[in-house]
Amino acid sequence: MSSTPRRRTVLATGVVAATVVALDGCTSGDGQEDRPDRPEQGADLVLTGGRVHTLDDKDSVHQALAVSGGRIAYVGTDQGARRHIGKRTEVVELRGRMVMPGLHDGHLHPMSGGQGLLGCDLEYAPLTVKQFQDRIRAYLKETADDEKASPDTWVQVEHWYAQAMRPAGTKVTKAVLDALDTRRPIIVKSTDGHTVLVNSRALEIAGITAKTKDPSNGAIARDAKGEPTGVLEDGASDLVEGRIPKPTAEDNLRIARTALAALAEQGVTTFMDAMASEEAIRAFATLAERGELTARGHFAPLVNVGDKDPIGTVTALRERYDGGDAKPAPTIAVRNTKLFLDGVLQYPAQTAGLLQPYLECDHGACRPGKKTGAQYWKQDQLDDIVGKLTKAGFDPHIHAIGDRSVRLALNAFAKVREGGDRTSRLTVAHAELVDPADIKRFGRLDVVAAMGFHWAKPAPDSVESVRPYLGSSRWSRYEPEGDIFASGGRISLGSDWPVDPLDEWTAIKTAITRTAEPGSPYAKEGPMTPRQRLSRAAALRAVTVNGAYQLRQEKLTGSLRAGMFADLIVLDREVTEVPEEEIAGAKVLLTMVGGRIVHGGTDLK
Fold first, then answer.
1. What is the pLDDT of residue 22?
2. CA angle, 254 as apex, 249 and 257 as ends, to 5°?
3. What pLDDT, on the 0 to 100 scale, is given for residue 2?
4. Does the pLDDT value for residue 8 go beyond 70?
5. Does the first or last residue of the chain, that is N or C, have fewer Cβ atoms within 10 Å of its Cβ?
6. Is the alpha carbon torsion for 272, 159, 196, 451 positive or negative?
7. Which of these, 195, 409, 389, 421, lies nearest to 301 by C-alpha position?
8. Which contacts qualify for 331-334: CB closer than 8 Å, 24 or more apart?
9. Residues 372-383, buried b or exposed e (16+ Cβ, 10 A)?
10. Burial of 387 (0-12, 13-18, 19+ CB in 10 A)
11. What backbone torsions phi and psi does residue 504 show, to the nearest 5 degrees?
12. Comparing C-alpha atoms, which of 191, 153, 195, 204 is closest to residue 172?
């Protein structure tokens, strides 16, 4: 190795560097004394000449940063950083590039996401019935050898944007799949995560007939004669998915690696699997043991109504797989649990629990209806299980979309706080509709709202499938990021991938603008419920500081301060200054986790 520092230079981005706070000589960016590494050794890496957004309490912006042993050794001026350069230090001259903490995604499904990247992918596209069939037909042709080897090899289709079928209002049934020239069982998974479509062969294998009763946590759609249509809502999909052969251990490792690579490309350095199976936990734990884990993984096993020993089950998983105290090298944590209170707001499912009924609409005329959605847990059941989980050291993460369900979750969390527990990290996932009386409870109860920013824009699943059925008053409160933030609540990002695309920068842009993408037919709608917009600063803190808080990492990650883990990203643009629409196009040039580069490199090309 060379005896002189290794230097790399990147091209200027055209962004004018802002004035930085000088920290020459005496401090390391957070008031601590600066103790440089020994000159003969120095830091592992020094970044200079950039715009280092620390996301500290003052949102400080500095010039340089040094990394040693997987931690941040220094944040401050170029002059101060030079004292950390030794014979073995790699020095990267940023030329105005933006550095910030790595992203924290507090609600996604990495195994489903990874599987989708490897299988039949409809790519969230608006499709006609013919286009829908053609995509699957092409996949059947590509995998014809699989069918020859085993006629009942399952076809798993991912990322079906059911609400965007064209023309608007198109409904599909098993007949659409039965028309394809195959005898293979087919399952098509909607992007909302709550609806699947299957063909007749799949229903046959699962034994689903007109006589099959709906499960307690889902519904089998039926025609006028009571026959299953092939559409399965929520827990009803388990009747089919339970018949699909599970991936092998090697399959799961391949899926997990695929998911991690996609996350690193987006700049995600910490994530939470919001419905983690033991197979998923085992796959990521295996990668951690092999030194292949490239993001900090948190896993929330599902707790269902009627589970015989939920505390024993999740405790056993924690004891078996949890990596213990966090270290610079990423490990996994099993300290969260997932509960479902309801389904989705979108028509025709409308399984999200509402305080007042959905409207019924016919040819543009809407009137009060009778449907109020699902409620998978009674209040006393929920209070009991949440209390037991928190006492056992788990942080409950509750899926609640409708205003009635959000209230149930907050009621249960209020009992936790009333019992003297101020430390549990309590989270409501999605919270798409919140009654005004409950908005301030997020802040008062210290409950994190893990919001799906992609939903906060005009699209088929909002203006077509939700707006008419809520009415103007409730619609003004749809995706209430702005209301929760303004009332002192803490918001984090929960992308819900693969329910939505893994496109974190478009999601961040959407939370700020509330607009559809330019060129979209919905762009003419302008900002959706504009009072719910987040500022850039609030959106960036949601995906960093607040995500770290949700997952109990705020003393280790989420901001760039001396002593914290070196989880950071370098971007191709200054997202705090470029026009809002350009945030969506941000490219991550380098992703670092615990001082290890997991995406890109120091050439920053």
1. 31
2. 125
3. 39
4. no
5. N
6. positive
7. 389
8. 331/288, 331/293, 331/296, 331/297, 332/281, 332/284, 332/285, 332/288, 332/293, 332/296, 332/297, 332/298, 332/299, 333/296, 333/297, 333/298, 333/299, 333/551, 334/276, 334/281, 334/298, 334/299, 334/301
9. bbbbbbeeeebb
10. middle
11. -65, -30
12. 195
Q: How many residues in the chain?
A: 605
The tokens for 118 are 């490897």
Structure tokens at 344: 């989705």
The predicted-structure confidence for 64-83, as pLDDT tens digits, reads as follows 999 999 999 999 999 999 99
CA–CA distance, 605 with 587 (Å, rounded to integer): 11
Asked whether the beta carbons of 189 and 156 are under 8 A apart, the reply is: yes
- What value does the CA radius of gyration of the chain take, rounded to a whole number of Å? 25
Q: What is the pLDDT of residue 448?
A: 98
pTM of the model: 0.86
Backbone phi and psi for residue 241, each to the nearest 5 degrees, phi listed first = -60, -25
Task: Find all residues with CB under 8 Å of 140, minimum gap 6, and list them.
Answer: 147, 155, 180, 181, 182, 184
Please state, in angstroms and rounded to a whole number, the distance separating the CA atoms of residues 443 and 74. 33
Distances (CA, A) of 469 to 296, 368, 371, 445, 492: 40, 9, 11, 30, 27
Question: Average pLDDT in the 31-51 region?
Answer: 71
- The dihedral over CA atoms of 413, 418, 421, 425, expressed in degrees to the nearest 10, equals 20
Tokens 């590494």 sit on residue:
37
Each residue's pLDDT tens digit, 497-552: 998 899 999 999 999 999 999 989 899 999 999 999 999 999 999 999 999 999 99
- CA-wise closest residue to 407 among 355, 448, 472: 355
The three-state secondary structure class of 308 is: coil
DSSP three-state, residue 434 = coil
Residues 383-413: pLDDT tens digits? 999 999 999 999 999 999 999 999 999 999 9
